[in-house]
Amino acid sequence: MFKRIGFLFALMLLASCVSSRAAPTLTPPPTLPAATGIPVTPKPNTPRASAEPTATVETLPTPENVADMFRAASAELKNYKPPENDPKSLYDTLAKGIGEFLAATANGDVSLEGQPALEQLRDALGQLENLPENAQAQVTAIHTGDDQGGSRDVVFVAMQGVMGLPIIGVERLGASYEPLPPISFGGIESAEARYFYPAQLDARDVTGDGMRELIYVLEIPGASGTTNDLTIARWLAEEKQAKTIFHAALINWAGESDYQIETTADASSIKLTFPWFGAFDHKLLAHPNATQTWEYDDAQDKFVPVSQTIQEPQTPRQALNAGEYALSNGDWNGALTQYERAWNDANLAKEDFTDSQADPAAFGKFRQAMVLYLLGRTDDAQKLLSDAQKSGDALASVAKTYAKNASGQNGALRGWIAMANAGDLYQLIYDDKAGNLDFPFEAREIYLQGGIVAAYLQTRNDADKNPEQVWQALAALGFKPLQRTAADLNGDGVNEFLVVTQEGGTSPNQSEALWFIYKRENAWRVRALDIADTVQFEGELLPLPNSQQRALKLKLPEAYTPNETALTWDGTRLVWLDAKSLEPRPDNWPSVGGGVLEDDF
């Protein structure tokens, strides 16, 4: 039985090689509207601190003693064994040599951006002794201002093909050069953290303030595909450090994930293109592409998500997944359209699930009936429900349980709850005995127990104002989560809800599912949070300093390090926090293409 793999892969050592990926140039495919984000306020176009250099900057000859400048670095390269070796000595000797080289070749009176000395440096670094095969250098610069001593700039160097070596930074003031601390989004403190290759390096103004930002990609090799870690950072001249204003893990696990930066007159947008995974999916199946658009927001000084589009479905399963996504977003009419396509669109191509008898079209009928019940259209729902009960054994059993309990007041919710309480579908699927609900179906997504709370809130205006009444009403219908809580996490007057349920009904391995239910764009949405097989709510909600936000602490199994975390909601995205300091964790940026739903999180 296949299980969908999460974000984390097993890493394996590869040879010293690197691939630079070009940004996609194709027009995005026909798409389904999915979500729009918050408005952004880009910075106005302001004058540069200093004029860019022109072709009149003299090209000075490359020094004859280049080998001497980098002799210590070449010696370090000879003995460097990544990722076990700390790259600090190699970094320091390269930074020193870079400063000496530029002192002899660059014009210190004008901006270093675009000077011929940068290309000369790139060529010189590419000829160092003891470099790994196919290794090469990338060089860029950011002009940060002018001083009495000359132009102030920062030079950045990426040594492609040298594992574990972070982006090298050297600050220049006129003719003097000072090495800066290593630049790497994830740090380089451990061998595991150093398991990357520098892949791409650039600098351009993407915020509209007249100063370049640093753009770099670190390529992380893996057993099932590479991950390209994209970072865009603002250089803080006074602090002498890079502040991340955008980061994304582009996972090439089930197909290529890529990025494109589109620049307008006063700002830029970032488009992430990646294979989109739905509720019932797997790496080896075909996926529609999704495109996320991020734009710079001046008030937050970072890029924020503003939209996501998903390619039109090509198979019944993909249409079913589009319906599940709409249902999870509280878009019931959109869900009806996609569910009907799953069983009634002759243009959709059938998929081969090898030995699995999975029937996405039949399940689409059942799910369409469930949504029709929620909308009060019981007559339309009953024929579809009858058809579903005539399907294969697994779906027939689920549909019969639902139909038996779906009559009368609150029938739609009562049927949904009874279906989820009925049995151990998780084990049937795990043992490949689930018939037409076999691979790639998943019990958690079939039951979608967090959706019960979202549906209740969707049909009752302002019910979130009294969470205890919500829990009592659902308990009367048979809904008994293992844990539950509700609170206004972001201080906007609307409560968010979290529940823990048994995954797939009454699974023998006692695996649990954590659900987050929240309101966005006038609809109640639900997401399953994949953080651990079991999770425990810890204590009261905690206020965050200098904010109206509150956070919930979560205890994970002892095998996890750390085994505590915390979360809050900022109104647009879920934010994970360090459990002790309640500071945002550095991994709150998106990861795409890795088999998890990445939109509001």
Q: Can you tell me about this structure?
A:
This protein has 601 residues and is of the alpha+beta class. The protein has three domains: 209 residues, no CATH class; 136 residues, no CATH class; 145 residues, no CATH class. It is 25% helix and 27% strand. It contains 14 helices and 22 strands. It has a five-stranded antiparallel beta sheet with strand order 1-13-12-11-10, with no helix packed on it. The chain has a five-stranded mixed beta sheet with strand order 6-7-8-9-22, with no helix packed on it. Strands 2-3-4-5 form a four-stranded antiparallel beta sheet, covered by helices on one side. β14 and β15 form a beta hairpin. α6 runs antiparallel to α7. The relative contact order is 0.10.
Describe how the helices and strands are arranged.
Layout: E1 31-36, H1 66-69, H2 71-79, H3 88-105, H4 116-125, E2 136-147, E3 150-160, E4 168-173, E5 176-179, E6 197-204, E7 213-220, E8 227-236, E9 241-251, E10 258-263, E11 268-275, E12 289-297, E13 302-311, H5 316-328, H6 332-344, H7 360-374, H8 378-389, H9 393-405, H10 411-421, H11 425-430, H12 443-447, H13 450-458, H14 467-476, E14 483-487, E15 496-502, E16 512-520, E17 523-529, E18 536-543, E19 550-555, E20 564-569, E21 574-577, E22 591-592
Helix pairs in contact: 2-3, 3-4, 5-6, 5-7, 6-7, 7-8, 7-10, 8-9, 9-10
